[in-house]
Specification:
single chain; mainly alpha; globular; TPR-like_helical_dom_sf; SusD/RagB family nutrient-binding outer membrane lipoprotein
Length: 496
């Protein structure tokens, strides 16, 4: 009986096990089919990578421009949490991490394009690669380049830092190749949130960037022949013709593709105000763009005579909050860069900047004034650049603007005039105004009174602290070659 009882007790267990076995056996027959998401992306293609490549890199640079780029170049200033304005920068790893992450996608895009012989996608990948590496090297100096982005393919986790001179040689070579590749294959480019698949405009961007970087290194190398070669052959090297060609990402009114600053808290946005340096310059020129870049002070906004007033850069917290009688008497940054960024006009003005037509004209004006190129006059390029800069922010240029003191072209003041108008035209366009000021010295800027950098305006970011532990040997070699790892060591092209 005990034996029979034991058997009877086990029957439910055996039956349950048999049922489960039959159930899983039946499921196993269709397991792969049942557990396959019909909407899942199983194969990454260039059109899926391209939007992320553009959006992530542009948004990173625009965020850096808001946090430090506009501040250090004295277009905006801070009235609270003023460390950035006093050059107490600390670890600036966000640019490094964000752009190297974007470069992994760029590398994947390039490899996919090569494998499928899609030259248009490869050309675009080379343009984006060149621009991203230029921002990295202009921000930090020598950086990983030739051995970078090889952790997965070559198990290279401690890449060497390349000298900036070699990085620029690679950037320029890639832009030359991009110009050759673009338009040489017939695939339709999908996922292009910058130019909607217009390959000719990508070629124009490649060549405009090429001229930017030739000018960047012009204090170190003779670039006259290379610049003239581009201008001499517009069929081979098309260039921006107007603002319609701008390499500037147009954001949308809907999330998640809105202008990045639009989503900030009001308090965070209001920490940033118009810099007195830029405000005084615009007021002196009677330049109506001040109404785009800033707004009348709160104290005067509803009066018959609204006033614009900036705050000096580099004040301590107490001095900044109390300047000019308090924050009600200091202009906030323009509404088109915040709450009105999703308005029709805001969508035209608040864009993600890679490069635009006004900058190209100022580059050509400088090149012509220095005898690096022949053709149009420096004055012609300069005045075209000013007109285009007004147009880019949807503002009518006053009829007498080009003849005003401090604006009217004079060959003996060409560098100062061009540099100043270029600086104004580069308002909130990422880090480019800072890079260019370091090269030219225009406009003439002074560190703020409470700065913590011995009255010096920084000329680079220090390397991320994580590199000291994760890539110490390569970093040390770069520091030995380049100079002390601090914010005052100039990069290679800055040794003029």
């Amino acid at each position: 009986m005990p034996y029979i009882n034991n058997i009877m007790k086990r029957i439910p267990l055996i039956s349950g096990a048999l049922a489960l076995s039959l159930l899983f056996g039946a499921c196993d027959k269709n397991f792969e089919e049942i557990n396959t998401d019909p909407n899942a992306i199983l194969r990454v293609t260039p059109d899926l990578l391209l939007p992320t490549v553009i959006r992530s890199s542009v948004n990173q640079v625009m965020g850096d421009g808001w946090a430090i780029g506009n501040i250090v170049i004295q277009q905006t200033a801070k009235i609270q949490f003023v460390n950035a304005d006093r050059y107490i920068w600390g670890d600036q790893s966000g640019t490094w991490n964000g752009l190297y992450t974007a470069l992994r996608d760029v590398n994947n895009l390039e490899q996919l394009a090569e494998a499928s012989q899609q030259n248009n996608y490869k050309g675009i990948s080379l343009v984006m690669k060149s621009w991203i590496y230029s921002v990295l090297t202009d921000t930090y100096g020598d950086v990983p380049y030739s051995e970078a982005i090889q952790g997965k393919t070559a198990q290279q986790f401690t890449p060497a830092y390349d000298a900036q001179e070699q990085i620029y040689a690679g950037i320029i070579a890639d832009l030359e190749e991009a110009n050759t590749l673009l338009g040489s294959s017939g695939e339709v480019v999908v996922g292009d949130i910058l130019y909607s698949g217009n390959i000719q405009r990508w070629k124009k961007l490649a060549n405009a960037l090429h001229l930017r970087y030739l000018m960047r290194i012009s204090g170190r190398q003779n670039v006259a022949q290379a610049m003239q070669a581009i201008l001499n052959d517009p069929t081979k090297y098309p260039l921006f013709e107007n603002n319609a060609d701008n390499g500037a990402l147009r954001y949308l009114a809907e999330l998640p593709n809105q202008f990045p600053v639009h989503t900030y808290r009001v308090g965070s946005f209001d920490e940033f105000r118009l810099s007195k340096t830029l405000g005084d310059k615009l007021l002196n020129f009677q330049d109506p763009r001040i109404a785009i870049f800033a707004r009348p002070t709160a104290a005067s906004a509803s009066s018959a005579n609204p006033q614009y007033a900036g705050v000096p850069n580099g004040l301590d917290d107490v001095a900044a909050l109390n300047y000019n009688g308090g924050v009600q008497n200091i202009s906030r940054v323009g509404a088109l860069y915040f709450e009105n960024a999703i308005s029709d006009r805001g969508l035209e003005v608040a864009r993600g900047y890679i490069m635009a037509y006004p900058e190209l004209q100022f580059i050509l004006a400088e090149a012509a004034s220095k005898g690096l190129i022949s053709g149009n006059s420096a004055q012609s390029y300069y005045e075209n650049g000013i007109r285009a800069a007004f147009d880019m922010v949807d503002t009518e240029m006053p009829s007498a603007y080009l003849t005003r003191e401090g604006v009217a072209f004079q060959q003996n003041r060409a560098s100062e005039l061009i540099g100043t108008q270029k600086w104004i035209g580069l308002f909130f366009t990422g880090m480019e105004a800072w890079f260019d000021w370091r090269r030219t010295g225009y406009p003439q800027l002074q560190a703020g009174p409470s700065n913590q950098n011995n009255n010096r305006i920084p000329v680079r970011f220090a390397y991320p602290l994580s590199e000291q532990s994760q890539n110490a040997t390569s970093r040390a070699a770069a520091v030995s070659r380049q100079g002390a790892d601090d914010i005052n060591t100039p990069v290679w092209w800055d040794h003029n």
